[in-house]
Each structure stands twice: as C-alpha cells, then as structure tokens.
Amino acid sequence: MNRMFAVAWREFVSVVWTRGFLLGVFLPPLMTGIAIFAVFLLKNMEGPRVQGHVVIVDQSGLVGEAAVKRLPEDLAARSKEKAEQIKKAAEKATETFKLPPDQAAQAKAMADMQTKQMIPSAEVRAELGAPDQDLDKLKEILRTTEIKAKGESGNADPLLAVAVIPKGATEPDAEGKFGVFDLFVAPKLDIEIQQGIERSIGDAIVDARIASDSRVKAAGLDSKFLRSMLARPNIDAVTITKSGERKSIGELQMLVPMGFMILLMVSVMTTGQYLMTTVVEEKSSRVMEILLSAVSPMQLMTGKILGHMAVGVLIIGIYGSVGIASLIYFALTQLVTPMTFVLLIGYFICAAVTMAALMAAIGSAVNELREAQTLMTPVIMITILPWMIWFVIQRAPNSPLATTLSFIPVLNPYVMVLRLGGSEPIPSWQHPIALLIGAVTSITVLWGAAKIFRIGVLMYGKPPNFKTLIKWVRMA
Amino acid sequence: MLSIEIRGLTKTFGPKVAVNNLDLSVPQGSLCGFIGPNGAGKTTTIRMIMSIIFPDSGELRVLGRPSAVESKDRIGYLPEERGVYRKMKVGAFLNYMGKLKGIDAASTDKKVRSWLERMGLPNEYKKKCEELSKGMQQKVQFISAVMHEPDLLILDEVFSGLDPVNRRLIRELIDEQHKAGRTVIFSTHAMFEAEQLCDQIFMIHKGNKMLDGSLQSILAKFDPRSILVEPTDPADLDRLATIPGVISSQPAGKTTHEVRFSETVDPAHAMRSIIDSMPVRRVEVKRATLEDIFIDVVLGRSGAAHTDRENLRNELAAASSE
C-alpha cells in the first residue's frame, strides 16, 4: 500500500513539478484573474467624449432640417437609454436571483461602471450641406479628420461624418420601394456614435416619408402613432418547472454543461496522456524492470493511475474554483449546486479511471509514443463522441437518446456530465445507476488493462495490434 | 538451506520453448554464475525467479517461500534491461527506489549518500540521471539493487557495457556481498567472468540445463588430461606419440602439439617423461576453460565436427563483444 502511494506521489510530482505543466495549467486562470483585476482598475475610466459635426446633404428636400435638429437630441437620448438598460439588467438580475444586499450592491456598481465605460458622451452638431455640394471635397476632409477626445489639443470641431440623402429615400419608385441613404464617416469614429447617427438620420427619413404621404395625412395619422403600432412586443419567457416558475436564463444555462464537459475532458485527457507518456518513457528508458524488482505490476499501475488522477483533480480544482469564483462574481451561483459538484467528481473518477487504465495498457504495449497513435485513435473517439452529440443532448437532456446514452459503458460519464448542467433536472434514479455502470466499467477496464500491462511492460519489439491485446487479456 | 530451489520449470512463448524442464538448487551464501550464450533462457529463468513472469509448469521456491513477491524486500535485482529516469536527479531516484524497497524513510538518504561516495559519485547526487555516462548510470543501478541489503542478490548481465576499471569495481562489490554471507546469482555470457568469480556454475543452452555444480567439481570433471608440448626442435613433434603412456598427439598450433595420456598416468610423471625424451621450450598441463567445457557439453565431447565447434565459439565471442 505504501509503495503504491510512493509511486503515486512520484508520478504526481514528476508531472506537476515541471515548467510545462505549471505554465499550461496555472497561466490561463492566472490571466483570467489579471483580466478581472484589470477591469477593476478600469473602473474609473470613462468612455470617449466625442465632439465634432456631421454634414447632411439632403437631395430630397424633405429630411434635412428635421435631421439637423434631431441628431444631437437623438444621440443624447440614446446614451440615456443605454444607461437605463444596463441599470435595469442589474436590477433584474438582483430580482431574479434574489441576490443578498451585498451582491446586489455589487451588481449595481458593475452597472454604473459599464455605463461609464461603454457609453460615449457626444457633443455632436449637424449642419445642412447644399444639395449640389462637392462630395469628393468633403470625403477628402473626412479622410484626414483626427478625432480627439474633448480637452485634447487639436481641431475642436472636426467633420465626423457626411450623410447623403437622395431623392429616392423619401419618394417610392414605380414598385413602391424606397431608396437608402449614404453615410461616410471619419476613421476611428466611435462605433456607438456612428450607430447613433445612422439611427437618427434613418428615423428622420422615415418620419419624412410618413409626413409627406398624402394618404397618411388624409387618414389623420402621425408618425408617433404608426411607430408605436408597429413595435413588436418584447418579453421574457417564464419556465414552468415542478418547483415553481422562474425566468429562463437562456444562453447561460447552455454554458454550464459545456463548461463541465470541457473541464471533464481536459482533466481526463491530460491525465491519460501524461500517464501514457510516462509508461512509454519507463519502457524505453528501461527503468521498468528495475521498478518491477521492487513493486508488482499491479501496484505500479495502480500507483501511476492514482498519481495521475490526482493531477486531474488538481486541474479540476484549479479550473473549477476559477469557474466558481466567476459564478460568484457574476452572481450566478444558483446555476450549480454543491450536489452538482459531488456528482461531477463522481463521474470524473469513473471517466478518469477508465481512460487512465486504457492509456496505461496502450503505453505498456508500445515501445515509443509514435507507435501509440494507432492504438489511441479509438480511445480518443470515446472523448470526441460526446462533443458530436453535445448539441442534441443539451437541447433535450431527458430525451430517450440522452437517457440511453447515459447507460452505455465508457460513454456514460461524459453524457451524464453534459446533462448535469442542462436546463432540465435529471430524474434522480438515473444518477445511482449511471454511477454504478461507470464504476463497473472502470473496474472491468482496469482489470483488463492490468493483464495487458503485466505482459506489455516487458515486451519489446514489434508493437501488438488490437487482436494481440485482446489475446493478452484472455491469457493468464 | 537453499536460497533458490527450482523443479521442472518450463516456460514457452508461443511456439518457442524458452526454458525446458529446469532443475536448480542454489545453496545459501553461494556465488552462483548463470552462464550460456544469448537466448539461452537466462533472463527468462531469472524473471520467473523474480515472479515478474510466471512459469507454465514447475515448482519454484525463493528464500523458502513459493513466490519472490512475498520476499521482495530481501531480494536485490539488477535486470538485464535496465535504465534510469532520465529527468530525475540521481539522489531523488535512489531515494525513490529505497522507498519502494521498504527502507525506512529516515535512513534512506544517508544510505544513498554513502553508497554514492563509495561508488566514486559523490558529486552526482544533484545531477540529473541523463547527465551521467552509461558506466555511471550502471553504478547507480547497482546501488539501487543492493542499497536495501538484500539476502539474495540477482544480477543479470551485470558486466555488459562496463569498462575494465568499472568491471573490476563491480567484481569487488560482488565479492564483498558474497563475503558478507549473501547469496549472489549473476548471469553472463562472458564465461571467463564466471570463472573468475563463481563458486557455483549453472550452465544453460537453448532452455536446457547443461551443467550444474561447483566450479571445482566441474573443472575436475572436464579435466582434458592433456599436456601442451613445444619442442625446441620441431622435428621432435613426430616423436611425441612414441613416448610410453601417450594415447594421442595432435597439433595445437604450428610448433605445439596437444598430448593425451591414459587415465592411469599421473600428469606430473607424464611431464617428466616428456622432458626426459627431448629438449623442450614449453611443457604445460592443459586446463579446461568454461568455454571449452561449454562447447564440449553442447556438442558432445568429441563427436562434433570442427566447424560446429568454431561456430559456437564465434557465437560466444560475438556475444561477449556486444
């Protein structure tokens, strides 16, 4: 027993205590951490303040003046509306997730921060250009425009954009279709402001169309009424579950099973790969038989599997805690429960033991990594298959297909993990059965792998094929 | 008391019989040489003794127990296929091996350092194994086999790949282990190594036991009872056959003949009668080498053709030069 743990400890250290592993595993979460920290630092940074003017060349004669008048107002209203939206989203999150006061305050602070950062404040005026204005000249000016934030030195009132409204924009052609307008903008114009200008002039054109139409006038309608009539109702769906009603979380709910799946795959594959590499290395460096003089093949294999599984748990631990930290940060903790994690670990153990045993067997049978490729292909298929059916399963976690796959040996830990984070709870009787199948599978694979391992580790020369491996399992 | 007792041991790999109905007893405290050319079945036998592979049939007792697994800590084993973890530090590797062999953690490191000192590798403790020369690596492996002070030491092809200086060092260490009362088994295809070291010989060829016994008894049994004679005058060579008691006289080189006497003649007496009958440059009682004996045993004492003997001799020479 002691020796098995000695083997496990050496394997663990030999993997974890290398530059490659430390970089590969710790760097991504570390960088995420730095990014989050950086967001905090940026808290007091403000969105750009843009000033300048827009020239509107109106060839229709119906839009120009109204457009010039409403552009600054529209931009201001748009900023206000966006800020309102962000604030509302934060309030909604607080309400939906029943956040405690401290988290609610955090959400509000986040919203304020976003408002500050994302919404540019604009001091933009518009002026009317002559219908026969030289466009090339204006474009030339645009080309050289340098947009400065307010307070910086330079042109205080640069040309930001030129809008050209042709006659066809307000007068329908023979088929009853209206034309579009052109907008030329200076380089580096804030996208938010550009969209504001597009929207504002577009609205001005629509208003002009309505106002100039004799039928609308005759019916005594105005643009405001028509617009509110045409607005599509916007709603949030409510999910009816056994335990009550809740608002759909939508996309976020999709991310959870995906996150679990990636976590499981990364840890299982890393575990398996490292394990196989060390077995092949021990064989090719001929250290294997020296080890076997002190420990039995079974002790060696079990120790190795334990050691590498500890590496897998470490990976899950690191990434899982980063995941939990970000769930807490974004106040989404209700997406997962502690039980989910217990089950996740359960399925991880089933998947990892199976994979590690297969990899140990393959590693023991070959002389170098290159030879392992052919034997590894079917094993890798096991982990790729759940990816291929990911979408089907996450859309309908309790469909007959998903349920059936949950009971197919080798595949089932991956399928269960996919379903685990899904939108519908899994019927509770399925977990014990799936875990049992997983456990029986991993023990069976372990048993077969031990036989291959015992014969394989001392076998040099031509690498065996699958038929030979199965023969080894049947032997002895 | 026997350290190893083997009865009717047989192992086949597919159609190939690697070890065939082998009997062997290794007395406690002996220094036993397993000899035979490559592919004779030495390593297979040793692996079965170590319970790394299992026999198809036959009985086996190691240190009084039916399996080496039960007394692994009392056995030191240096396999033929041996290596080290390339990226691991020498000290860490030996500490790890010590732990696997059940040495208590407190004294392992002290043992490792003192052994490295003895092997002339005191500065290699912190070096990575891959930085060591092959000879140095062999020494590290040897330490890993003996550091837990086993009662039985099994060394498979321990001399291969070593330079003469290190051969000598290992030979001294084996001798030391032997003198400390430990049973040592080592296999080699270089028969002269066995001749220099062993007190027990176990000869194996193509999976079959050829010879088994103490070195003294084997050498006595295969005494060729012949004398090499080099007369001062080559013309006297022809006269050798006429000396009383001589059975045959055959050329053994350009100016030398090998002279055989009948069983009843005392070698000392025979030498005197040669010197009396002609002036000689050299007279010498021929001693059988293990290699000669091996060839005799494998091919039969006299029946085999000369080319067969040469072929086998070449085979052995090729194996030694590897």
Topology of this protein?
The complex is a heterodimer of chains A (476) and B (322).
Chain A: H1 2-16, H2 19-41, E1 49-58, H3 64-96, H4 101-118, E2 121-129, H5 135-144, E3 159-165, E4 182-185, H6 191-212, H7 214-219, H8 223-230, E5 238-241, E6 244-247, H9 251-284, H10 288-292, H11 297-329, H12 338-365, H13 369-388, H14 390-395, H15 400-405, H16 412-420, H17 430-456, H18 466-474
Parallel strand pairs in A: 1-2, 1-3
Antiparallel strand pairs in A: 3-4, 5-6
Helix pairs in contact in A: 1-11, 2-11, 3-4, 3-6, 9-11, 9-12, 9-16, 11-12, 12-13, 12-16, 12-17, 17-18
Chain B: E1 2-13, E2 16-27, E3 31-35, H1 42-49, E4 57-62, E5 75-78, H2 90-100, H3 105-118, H4 134-146, E6 152-156, H5 164-179, E7 183-188, H6 191-197, E8 200-205, E9 208-214, H7 215-221, E10 226-231, E11 246-251, E12 257-261, H8 267-277, E13 280-285, H9 290-299, H10 306-320
Parallel strand pairs in B: 3-7, 3-8, 5-6, 6-7
Antiparallel strand pairs in B: 1-2, 1-4, 8-9, 10-12, 10-13, 11-12
Calculate Rg of chain A over CA atoms.
32 Å
Q: Helicity range of the residues of chain A?
A: 55-70%
Looking at how many chains there are and whether they match, the oligomeric state comes to heterodimer
Approximate strand percentage of chain A? 5-15%
Shape of chain A: elongated
Determine the N-to-C terminus distance of chain A: 24 Å
Shape of chain B: elongated
Tell me roughly what share of residues is in helical segments of chain B: 25-40%
Notes on the protein architecture:
The complex is a heterodimer of chains A (476) and B (322). Chain A has 476 residues and is α/β, with parallel strands linked by helices. Chain A has 2 domains: 45-234, no CATH class; 250-475, no CATH class. Chain A is built from 18 helices and 6 strands. In chain A, strand 5 (238-241) and strand 6 form a beta hairpin. Chain A is elongated, with a radius of gyration of 32 Å. Chain B is α/β, with parallel strands linked by helices. Chain B is built from 10 helices and 13 strands. In chain B, the strands form 3 sheets. Chain B has a 6-stranded mixed sheet with strand order 5-6-7-3-8-9, sandwiched between helices. Chain B has a 4-stranded antiparallel sheet with strand order 11-12-10-13, with helices on one face. The longest helix of chain B is centred in the middle third of the chain and has 16 residues, at 164-179. The mean pLDDT of chain B is 84. The interface between A and B is medium-sized, with 24 and 31 residues.
